[in-house]
Amino acid sequence: MTGDFTRNIGVETNDPSHPRVNLTCKGRILEPVTLKPRRISMRKVSRTATGQKQTIVITPGDAGPLKLKLAPVESEFFEAELREIEKGKHYELEVTLTPPLPAKAVRTNLKLETGLAQAPNITIPVSAIPRPHVVASPRRFSVPAKRKPDWRQTVRLEWDDDAPHRILGATASDPGLKVRVIEKEGQQEVVLEVSENHERRPGASIITITTDDTEAPTVRVPVRFSRKAPSPATRRTPAASLRNIETKTRKIEGRGAKAKKTSRPSAKRPAPTPD
What we know:
Number of domains: 2
Helix content: under 10%
Order of helices and strands: EEEEEEEEEEEEEEEEEEH
Number of helices: 1
Radius of gyration: 37 Å
Strand content: over 45%
Low-confidence stretches: none
Strand order of the largest sheet: 3-5-8-7
CATH superfamily of the largest domain: Cadherins
Largest sheet: 4 strands, antiparallel
CATH architecture of the largest domain: Sandwich
Distance between the termini: 108 Å
CATH topology of the largest domain: Immunoglobulin-like
């Protein structure tokens, strides 16, 4: 935390008239070095492409002019270059990815000497998260509840490298689903066909696509079925509504019983006898 701040502090006292007093504390935390941004986080980067980079601007904070010196980078997946734009006042730290990257996140910390007595060293976290090696586009098959007899949907596979890859076949976990591989305009597609009267099986349905890629020999694509809207005759009444209906019924019955009780005719008085 750096910069201006405000905090409320509660103080308990032995004064019966003021057992608790609230104090407002205002201050400023000094920052010897200013970093914009404070860290480098690269997301969805290519594992093989070159020239992927980000830059941090470094300027003095509250401790005076800087004299920066970059320590050697302790990671094979990053390169860093420190440039002095204006002596002691303005620096740029450029971080570049060095492919190929592994199929997981990579991280390191860059260390710099500042030449300041208050903060002689600073550390900058750096991370990169590569895109998956191969993804399905779209990521799932979405089957509508109401569909035409000739309904179908296609999915393509997208790789993160420039090497040629091919789809060898595709199978469905549900035997009632029809899946095949076609080639259209030089690109392969996986086609899913579902009949109009197909009954969904319990559990998840998966389309398994096999490829010639040794790093990703199979790709699993889920099949999502939209739920049919219940008909008015079969639509269930929520439990909360049932409770409200029961409560109202009891109130009405209670009012009816009370009305009957108060409206009972009084006993007839005997007719007066003639004198």
